[in-house]
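anyone seen this seq b4? input:
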Amino acid sequence: MPKRAILAGGGALPQSLLEAGDAILVTFHGTPVDARASQQIEARFEQLASLFARLKSEGVTELCLAGAMRRPVFDPTALDAGTAALMPRLMAALQQGDDGLLRAVIALLEEQGFTICAPHDIRPDLLASEGVMVGEVSAALQADAHRAAAVLAALAPQDVGQGAVVAKGQVLAIETLPGTDAMLEFVAQTCPNSGGILMKRPKAGQDLRVDMPGIGPQTISMMQKAGLSGLVVQAGGALILEREKVLARAASAGITLWAAP
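predicted toks r here
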C-alpha cells in the first residue's frame, strides 16, 4: 500500500481522511489546522524543496491536498535554495485563478514523483449522491437552482467560483476568492431572508483531485443566518463533511438539501 501524506488546511476534511487510515499529516506555518495524527510534519511554503526531500526520505509516494488554505505570502528570508529556484514559477501561478493555481501545484508535485490522491478516493462515503436528503424541492427552489447552474457554467471559463446564491431568479452573490462563508455573510448583510438557494458545484473542467466543493455544518449555519431556503450540490461533485450534523442542522433550520446531476 502506498505511503500517504495529507497536505492539510483548515476545516474537518483532513481529520476525516486520517480516520480512513494511517498517513503523515503535513501542516504549514501560518495555516490553522484542527487535525492531529501520530506522525506530523510542520513545513513552510518557503521551504517546499526541503519538504519534498523529507517526504521522500519517509517513503511517501502519495499526496492528498485537503482543507482550506489562504494563498501564501512568501518570506524571502526563509527560502531554501531549492524553493528559491521555483519562485518565478510559483509567483506566476499565484497570479492565476484557483483552478490555474492548483493545476500548477499538481504539476509541481507530480514532477517530484508524487501521485496525487483525491479526498473522495480515500473517503468515497463523503461524496454527495443524487437525490433529496432533507425537505422537498419546490418549483421555486428548482427554478433558482437552474438559474444558478447557468450562471456558474458561464463563469467557469474565467476560473471564478464554485458557488452562487440565487433568489427568485436574481443572482445575489457569486463565490470569489474569500470563499463560501464570506459570500454567505455578504448575503446576510445585503439581502437577508430572501428564501433563495445556495448552489455549490465544481467548475467545468476542474481537476477534482483537489478543491472539490464541500459543505459542512457551518455552511448550514451561515445559510440560516442569511435566510436561505435551499442548498443544492452536484451529485458526485461535492463532499459532505460531518454528514449527520449537516442533515440534522438543515432539518432544524428548514433548509432543503439535495444533490442534482
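The mean pLDDT is 95. The longest strand covers residues 60-66. kinda curious what u guys think
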